[in-house]
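Propose amino acids for all 211 sites.
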């Protein structure tokens, strides 16, 4: 399992250490009315925004027993990156491979802890809330506060481009990026014009668009 954040510009952040657990909270919104003859009555409303939360840490040094990749970001730089994503006005995409989590979210909380005896590592807790686009319209058909629908932010996922490295295969790329090596055929069909007729011959430097 790998956890990624992708912004609207296609830039990706890969969490280096998986959390022990990920919590997804779902809750239904209820409206409470006080009726004289019945007392309090609860009326079900829409589902509340989902909350996704987990905690982990940014290690200073690589350890193959728990790190997902060797080229680790500096813990301070990684922490600053999360802070930057939290302060953005646009939603980001949260992708957790091998799960069904692939949604637009807002990073609503980011807490940092420095532990005694481990001054180089940075521990953190993050909370995401699923993004819900406001679709209030005026009688003219435009969104409130805008003059046309073209002013709304583009929240469509930006296709990720993978740069082929020496030793890569479609099987290994599908495993790393899509979480399932059997999806190499889908990856090949998407990039057949770049790879050519032989899916076993991919070359370093080729840019493959992820499905």
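Proposal:
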């Amino acid at each position: 399992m790998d956890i990624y954040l992708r912004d609207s510009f296609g830039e990706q952040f890969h969490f280096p250490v998986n959390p022990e657990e990920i919590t997804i909270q779902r809750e239904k919104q209820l409206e409470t009315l006080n009726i004289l003859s019945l007392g309090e009555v609860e009326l079900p409303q829409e589902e509340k925004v989902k909350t996704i939360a987990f905690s982990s840490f940014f290690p200073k040094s690589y350890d193959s027993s728990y790190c997902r990749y060797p080229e680790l970001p500096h813990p301070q730089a990684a922490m600053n990156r999360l802070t930057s994503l939290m302060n953005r006005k646009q939603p980001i995409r949260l992708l957790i491979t091998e799960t069904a989590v692939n949604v637009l979210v807002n990073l609503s909380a980011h807490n940092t802890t420095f532990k005694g005896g481990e001054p180089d590592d940075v521990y953190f807790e993050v909370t995401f809330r699923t993004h819900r686009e406001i679709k209030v319209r005026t009688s003219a058909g435009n969104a409130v506060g805008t003059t046309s629908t073209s002013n709304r932010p583009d929240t469509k996922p930006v296709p990720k481009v993978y740069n082929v490295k020496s030793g890569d295969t479609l099987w290994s790329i599908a495993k790393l990026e899509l979480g399932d090596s059997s999806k190499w055929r889908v990856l090949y069909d998407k990039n057949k014009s770049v790879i050519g007729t032989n899916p076993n011959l991919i070359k370093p430097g080729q840019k493959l668009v992820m499905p």
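Helices lie at 75-87, 170-178, 184-190, 192-195. Confidence is low (pLDDT under 50) at residues 146-150.
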